[in-house]
Fold:
Amino acid sequence: MYSNENFNRWRRHPWHGLHTRPDDAAADIVKVYVEMTPADVVKYELDKASGFLMVDRPQRTTSSPPALYGFIPRTYCAEEVAKRCPDVEEADGDPLDICVFSERHITRADIVLKARVVGGIQMIDGGEADDKIVAVLAGDNIWGDVHDIADLPAIYTERLQHYFATYKMIPGRETDIKVDFVYGREEALKVIAASELDYQNHFGHLHNGSRQQGL
Structure:
């Protein structure tokens, strides 16, 4: 019979109940909650109230993400993230998005993995900062030693830019999305730090005064 004293009776909330980084991990290793896989043509998103994965919308086109797509726990895109994006006054008010490349196909979402941050794409959606961090699966046999986005084939970044530039397109309507600026590892880590500060400023009260454990 399982008797570990740290066992939780209920599932932790993927956004608030997990830690941003594994214990004793390098600064560029983060945890990722996966919402979508490259095979998905339905937009799945975390229901922030319940912590369950829900259907946000069926995609209108055949576009699907070219990498695993999710977010980094205990991050939030607000004032501090917006400061790192010129000509933008606010961010999108969601956890920080992240895309993870893996040599082996991971075919299911609603999972947690460890990823190495290599860069990011400064996405501006409707005048709001909506950065997409780019990472590789930690320990991946092909990409595990990649440390900067410049070390990835350029086509990988181009596919991400194309996906995010077009995934909200509706025939006959214009979109206001910019994905022109790609940055490397150092800037990506600064964006993550800003999102952690935004999370602390907006949601720190959920953890202050308690020793809530996270995975």
